[in-house]
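Good morning,

Attaching, inline, the backbone tokens for the sequence recovery test we're adding to the shared suite. The designed sequence is right after.
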């Protein structure tokens, strides 16, 4: 199932959390978030490093 961007309340620069690339030690950019089935309080977020394009996913609370 592909990730789809969902609308977040608040300002566009409001970060949910920082995810750091283990290779480059740079802050990874948020790509997309989707709802987690059966978990109303959680979202699955995908992040990508701007330098090496490494990607990771995290469960976050918005």
């Amino acid at each position: 199932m592909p990730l789809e961007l969902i609308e977040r309340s608040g300002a566009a620069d409001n970060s949910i959390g920082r995810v750091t690339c283990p290779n480059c030690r740079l802050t990874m950019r948020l790509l997309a978030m989707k709802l987690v089935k059966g978990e109303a309080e959680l979202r699955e977020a995908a992040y990508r490093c701007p330098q090496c394009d490494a990607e990771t996913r995290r469960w976050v609370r918005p």
